[in-house]
């Protein structure tokens, strides 16, 4: 009888620790702790033994299990069948290992698994040799019951039927051979973390790559290519340091191997089918990546160092924006690869918010996949380059990672490269993270992590190539952690010894990666000193030539408008205003499509009633509500061939149960999206509506990146409540409000931010309208050209901020985003109670393009920036003694109160577009009511809302007509407040009632609250 008894407590502890770290920790069924000598359950696979079977107070017996197997092999798990069949058979036919027991075999398995799990802790990863890591006990031979006397004993391995070198056709090896292979595979200059991955196929694939591939041995030609790329990386930094000694460039010194690693990675993914790569990175090494990887002309980079960009020759008045520092800029180029392929590279511009660009890269990559019909996601790839401190410390990293497998956000895997210089600005790792590695957050996504010594360029290249193969094979994320250092501190004029004296004492005497590699190649005899000198001379000559040419460099037309953006206008070019009405027949046809459900579909009874009501709206043309107006905008844009994408928390149903873009069958659970059936044989992704994860920063960034790829798409992000959007404040501040000015990149992204005071408290009332208006860049003291044929007001403003009050105006607003020759972000203070308000309705005729219908004026059917008083006032109304200007849903309360108190001498005008300010229409109303007192009414506190933005611009409009000064603008609204709203409903009702009544009282209004 062959059996095992875990008699040694040390062996039991080792077995317990090793098996607890396998990717299969849970048993097939729940089993209580068994008494002494109890048999192992037959259904438990060999690889899933856990603590309950290895308790120190009892022994694990296999005798009963073996007896059961001998009586009936099918009565035990297949892994035990293989175990006994192979072991017993081999013991009978191989006398050399007849003394090997099952106990020794299992201890050997635990030793192998220990290296697979924890070998990276023994790997030589820190090029400076400063990190003192504790080697796990389970890598010790003695812990597994082996001694030096066992090193030359032969052991049978084939029993385990495992991948890696254990699966080779060498079932018998000495313990010494096994240990050497394990050390070679797991404890060299690359440390592999992959045993946390639950998928056995993925683990086996990696195990084969790690254990069966012999030590990296590149041919002479290949090594010369790697050397050439490392020399370029090193010489580029040296050249900049020589020419611009006092300039900040956040160089790559200490991490120069990143460049050959990236280039070899790109070569490999190109061979595996990738045609386009979107790159996101912070400033460390960005210029080197731009010049040596993306192939931005070196003369252009040098020109920017020597005084910045110049206007394009012959293009007087070219819009150049504010610009940005060199190491934030992006670009895009096509470049050849070593394998003869061509690949398109684009580096996304990024501010100093290091990881903020991450979700943009994923969104842009996803959009590329949509527009190139890359359904298997193998042609377009996103690559993110991180710093160690920011990868561990910034929450947007996880927000981005957790999008990786979501159906409407996945890009088929992102390759993450961490430039791990072991210091975050001046913070040591022990103060910058709580985990062993900065990359541990990626384990939550089952991403393999390859830690690599940044001084070993061939190890970096190997890790990068393996990451490329993983991504193209499994279409999921992977991390390459290049452990390196910063030779010159945070930037080139920093003094790092202030905070890291020990580290920088070592760095001062530490050889460069290039020196190390050159010495290695010289020792191998594959490359001579003459070869090295030849490459260095070539690189130096080209750098100097490019420097000379940079003095006369004149940039070509900016590449901010890529292929899809050809023909779009810059802020300096006049774009004509287009009508947005739609043919009535098309409105009827798409209206029927979006209000019809399949015959056998069984929706919730409340939803069924909603769709019946919607169908009636389309049939009669009466009472079109907000949701139908929005759906008509989407549907008509789809008919015209535009892509529409709506994303955010709960957007499918709508936070307020108003949209129902996706309907669920109450019996089968099947879903139906009416907007997927507007066009014959419609592409299933032409309209995309997706409930997002509970993220603002990450998801909004994703949609922003998506919107930047192609202008012929309406991309919308909706906040669950507008109040929650401030979780994405970095996106508003650094990208959306200023991206075009800094980087000359347009976007037509739409933000829907539910806003309005309904008594729901401080966190469900305000989308912080004042913040968006404060970031608007239009001059409050200058009235721009307002003639429709010459007007560039919107083009010259950084974005648009609106608070719309009718479904028809919302329809035209959304269509306006697509039907013009430029793109601007659109911030919509979206309604809540207006979604079902009895008066917030439109007639279908307001959506069409028929002359004479309500939505048609002298210019055509289009978005109304200001809606005049609903009463049929003439061009001159001297009897009106108060003009109340407002925005949003407070209008309906004001109008209701006006009817109630019968104030026919009060006019109420709705400012639908707050930014840019509609000077022409405001002045039209001021002229219409020459004797009226001017009132601005809002729901928000005085220090919030639109008042601080509106008042100086309104004053400018009034001053031009001789209508008074700032003191003549009367404020009606809540008083200044720290919180956006009261949390007491009774107080809210009182405040709302008082401000509405005050706006309409008969006595003159003063601004004393």
TrEMBL record:
This protein's UniProt keywords: Magnesium, Metal-binding, Mitochondrion, Oxidoreductase, Thiamine pyrophosphate, Transit peptide, Tricarboxylic acid cycle
Record the organism. Dioscorea cayennensis subsp. rotundata
Q: Which NCBIfam families match?
A: 2oxo_dh_E1, PRK09404.1, PRK12270.1
Question: Transketolase-like pyrimidine-binding domain location, by residue?
Answer: 624-837
One Pfam family assigned to this protein is 2-oxogl_dehyd_N
InterPro entries for this protein: 2-oxogl_dehyd_N, 2oxoglutarate_DH_E1, DH_E1, KGD_C_sf, ODO-1/KGD_C, THDP-binding, Transketolase-like_Pyr-bd
Reactions catalysed: N(6)-[(R)-lipoyl]-L-lysyl-[protein] + 2-oxoglutarate + H(+) = N(6)-[(R)-S(8)-succinyldihydrolipoyl]-L-lysyl-[protein] + CO2
Query: Which family is annotated?
Result: Belongs to the alpha-ketoglutarate dehydrogenase family.
Question: By what name is this protein known?
Answer: 2-oxoglutarate dehydrogenase, mitochondrial
Q: Which GO terms describe its molecular function?
A: metal ion binding; oxoglutarate dehydrogenase (succinyl-transferring) activity; thiamine pyrophosphate binding
Q: Name one GO biological process term.
A: tricarboxylic acid cycle
């Amino acid at each position: 009888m062959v059996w095992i008894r875990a008699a040694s407590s040390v062996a039991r502890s080792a077995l317990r620790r090793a098996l607890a770290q396998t990717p299969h920790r849970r048993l097939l069924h729940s089993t209580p702790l068994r008494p002494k000598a109890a048999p192992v359950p037959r259904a438990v696979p060999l690889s899933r033994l856990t603590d309950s079977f290895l308790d120190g107070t009892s022994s694990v017996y296999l005798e009963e299990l073996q007896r059961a197997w001998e009586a009936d092999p099918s009565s035990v798990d297949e892994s035990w069948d293989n175990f006994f069949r192979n072991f017993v058979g081999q013991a009978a036919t191989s006398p050399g290992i007849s003394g090997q027991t099952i106990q020794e075999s299992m201890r050997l398995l635990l030793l192998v698994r220990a290296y697979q799990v924890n070998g990276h802790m023994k790997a030589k990863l820190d090029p400076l040799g400063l990190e003192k890591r504790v080697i796990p006990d389970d890598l010790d031979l003695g812990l597994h019951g082996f001694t030096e006397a066992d090193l030359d004993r032969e052991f049978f391995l084939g029993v385990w039927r495992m991948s890696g070198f254990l699966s080779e056709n060498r079932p018998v090896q000495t313990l010494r051979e096994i240990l050497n292979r394990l050390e070679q595979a797991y404890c060299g200059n690359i440390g592999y973390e992959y045993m946390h991955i639950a998928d056995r196929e993925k683990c086996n694939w990696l195990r084969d790559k790690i254990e069966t591939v012999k030590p990296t041995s590149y041919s002479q030609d290949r090594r010369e290519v790697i050397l050439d790329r490392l020399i370029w990386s090193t010489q580029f930094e040296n050249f900049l340091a020589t020419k611009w000694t006092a300039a900040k460039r956040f160089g790559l010194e200490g991490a120069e191997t990143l460049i050959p690693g990236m280039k070899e990675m790109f070569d490999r993914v190109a061979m595996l089918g990738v045609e386009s790569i979107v790159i996101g990175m912070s400033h460390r090494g960005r210029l080197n990546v731009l010049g040596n990887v993306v192939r931005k002309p070196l003369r252009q980079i040098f020109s920017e160092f020597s005084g910045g960009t110049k206007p394009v020759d012959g293009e007087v008045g070219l819009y150049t924006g504010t610009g940005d520092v060199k190491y934030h800029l992006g670009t895009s180029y096509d470049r050849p690869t070593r394998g003869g392929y061509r690949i398109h590279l684009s580096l996304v511009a990024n501010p100093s918010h290091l990881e903020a660009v991450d979700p943009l890269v994923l969104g842009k990559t996803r959009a590329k996949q949509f527009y190139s019909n890359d359904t298997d996601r193998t042609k377009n790839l996103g690559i993110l380059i991180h710093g160690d401190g920011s990868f561990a410390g910034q929450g947007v990293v996880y927000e981005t990672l957790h999008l990786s497998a979501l159906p409407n956000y996945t890009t088929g895997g992102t390759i993450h490269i961490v430039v791990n210089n072991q210091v975050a600005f001046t913070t040591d790792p022990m103060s910058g993270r709580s985990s062993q590695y900065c990359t541990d957050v990626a384990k939550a996504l089952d991403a393999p992590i390859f830690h690599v010594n940044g001084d070993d360029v061939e190890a970096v290249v190997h890790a990068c190539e393996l990451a490329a193969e993983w991504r193209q094979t499994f279409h999921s994320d992977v991390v390459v952690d290049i452990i390196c250092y910063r030779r010159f501190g945070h930037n080139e004029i920093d003094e790092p010894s202030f905070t890291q004296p020990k580290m920088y004492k070592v760095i001062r005497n530490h050889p460069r990666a290039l020196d190390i590699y050159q010495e290695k190649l010289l020792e191998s005899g594959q490359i001579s000193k003459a070869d090295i000198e030849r490459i260095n001379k070539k690189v130096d000559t080209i750098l100097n030539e490019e420097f000379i040419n940079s003095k006369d460099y004149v940039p070509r037309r900016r590449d901010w408008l890529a292929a899809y953006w050809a023909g779009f206008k810059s802020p300096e070019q006049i774009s004509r205003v287009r009508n947005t009405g739609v043919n009535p027949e098309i409105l009827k046809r798409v209206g029927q499509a979006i209000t019809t459900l399949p015959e056998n579909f069984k929706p919730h009874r409340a939803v069924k009633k909603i769709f019946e009501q919607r169908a009636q709206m389309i049939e009669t043309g009466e009472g079109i509500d907000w949701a139908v107006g929005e759906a008509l905008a989407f549907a008509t844009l789809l008919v015209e061939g535009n892509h529409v994408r709506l994303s955010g928390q709960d957007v499918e149903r709508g936070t307020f149960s108003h949209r129902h873009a996706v309907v669920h069958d109450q019996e089968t659970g099947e879903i139906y999206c009416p907007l997927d059936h507007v066009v014959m044989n419609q592409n299933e992704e032409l309209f995309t509506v997706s409930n997002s994860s509970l993220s603002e920063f990450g998801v909004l960034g994703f949609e922003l990146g998506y919107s930047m790829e192609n202008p012929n798409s309406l991309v919308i992000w909706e906040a669950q409540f507008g109040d929650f959007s401030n979780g994405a404040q970095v996106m508003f501040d650094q990208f959306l409000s200023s991206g075009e000015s800094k980087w000359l990149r347009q976007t037509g992204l739409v933000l829907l931010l539910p806003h309005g005071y309904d008594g729901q408290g401080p966190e469900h009332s305000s989308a912080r309208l004042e913040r968006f208006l404060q970031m608007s860049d239009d001059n409050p003291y200058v009235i721009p050209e307002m003639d429709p044929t010459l007007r560039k007001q919107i083009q010259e403003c950084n974005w648009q901020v609106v608070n719309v009050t009718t479904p028809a105006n919302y329809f035209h607003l959304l269509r306006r985003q697509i039907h013009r020759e430029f793109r601007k972000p659109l911030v919509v203070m979206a309604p809540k109670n207006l979604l079902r308000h009895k008066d917030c309705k439109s007639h279908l005729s307001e959506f069409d393009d028929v002359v004479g219908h309500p939505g048609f004026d002298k210019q055509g059917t289009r978005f109304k920036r200001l809606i005049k008083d609903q009463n049929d006032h003439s061009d001159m109304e001297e009897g009106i003694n108060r003009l109340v200007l407002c925005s949003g849903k407070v209008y309906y309360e004001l109008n209701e109160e006006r009817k109630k108190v019968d104030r026919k001498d009060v006019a109420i005008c709705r400012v639908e577009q707050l930014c840019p300010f509609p000077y022409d229409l405001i002045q039209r109303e001021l002229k219409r009511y020459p004797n009226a007192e001017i009132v601005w009414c809002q729901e928000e506190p005085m220090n919030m809302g639109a008042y601080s933005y509106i008042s100086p611009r309104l004053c400018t409009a009034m001053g031009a007509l001789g209508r008074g000064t700032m003191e003549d603008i009367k404020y009606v609204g809540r008083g200044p407040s720290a919180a956006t709203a009261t949390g007491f409903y009774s107080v809210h009702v009182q405040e709302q009632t008082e401000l509405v009544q005050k706006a309409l009282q008969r006595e003159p209004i003063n601004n004393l609250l």
